[in-house]
Structure to design on (298 residues):
């Protein structure tokens, strides 16, 4: 991470800078992380334009946006960020630097392969090293208590979701709130509260069929609240699924110090397409409003 670094380049300046960087680095490219597109600056009929030339995550053979998307983080924070990425059993170091090209915010990605002898004693440790970096890229965006995605993940991936909504892909979302969480925390302590929230996470995982399902995101929005974003079902199907979760949870209890700790859930849902949700602020304002008034359209 570095200090704020949003330089504004002209078309000719960025062309020259990329040409110089390409002499020293394996790959240099401009990326729009909100759309997950590699962008090529060009002049068409004398006018500056950006031409999409491919999906950025295809480079790493990922099915969708990288879990640890440093370019999204760089654009969001207006700071330089970096990470290590693995591909075909090779390790790459990536620097993501936010820039403006003719006042268009983008990210300049610089990619360089890493030599194993430079970073570990022997080649016998290569597989362990690659595994550690893959794990780290996930771990920093997971909630440490439940293993759901965290708020940082949402901040970096929702802009791409809104881009998909603009392309008319079906996207629905929900908040699921554990009403009894604060009472359990105050009465029985953090261990009991942790047990209940982790049980709820497992119920959500099972009911939403989240195993190997890239079209559904489950994140911990607050200590007592999970956020669900679903691209594989209709709005009616998601609402039915949420109702099923609430019904199942009514019979779930954790026995703690001879006391039954109940699940008391409330939820809210939205259709991003039908309700023309276009940013995170609008999305969560509507979900929280419906949660507080129990006025979710289901």
């Amino acid at each position: 991470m570095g200090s704020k670094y949003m330089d504004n380049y002209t078309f000719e300046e960025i062309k020259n800078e990329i040409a110089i960087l390409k002499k020293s680095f394996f790959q240099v490219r401009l990326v729009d992380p909100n759309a997950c597109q590699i962008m090529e600056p060009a002049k068409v009929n004398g006018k500056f334009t950006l031409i999409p030339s491919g999906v950025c995550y295809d480079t790493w053979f990922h099915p969708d946006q990288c879990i640890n998307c440093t370019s999204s983080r760089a654009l969001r924070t207006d700071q330089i960020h970096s990470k290590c990425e693995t591909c075909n059993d090779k390790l790459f170091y990536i620097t993501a630097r936010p820039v403006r090209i003719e006042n268009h915010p983008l990210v300049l990605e610089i990619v360089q392969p890493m030599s194993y002898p430079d970073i570990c004693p022997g080649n016998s440790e290569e597989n362990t090293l690659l595994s550690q970096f893959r794990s780290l890229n996930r771990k920093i965006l997971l909630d440490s208590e439940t293993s759901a995605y965290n708020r940082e993940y949402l901040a970096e991936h929702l802009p791409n979701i809104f881009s998909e909504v603009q392309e008319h892909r079906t996207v629905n979302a929900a908040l699921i709130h554990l009403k009894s969480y604060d009472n359990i925390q105050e009465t029985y302590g953090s261990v009991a509260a942790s047990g209940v929230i982790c049980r709820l996470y497992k119920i959500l995982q099972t009911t939403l069929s989240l195993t190997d399902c890239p079209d559904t995101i489950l994140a911990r929005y607050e200590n007592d609240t999970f956020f669900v974003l679903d691209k594989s079902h209709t709005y009616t199907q998601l609402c039915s699924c949420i109702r099923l979760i609430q019904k199942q949870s009514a019979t779930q209890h954790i026995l703690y110090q001879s006391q039954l700790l109940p699940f008391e859930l409330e939820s809210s849902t939205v259709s991003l397409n039908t309700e023309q949700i276009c940013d995170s602020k609008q999305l969560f304002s509507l979900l929280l409003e419906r949660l507080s008034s129990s006025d979710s359209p289901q």
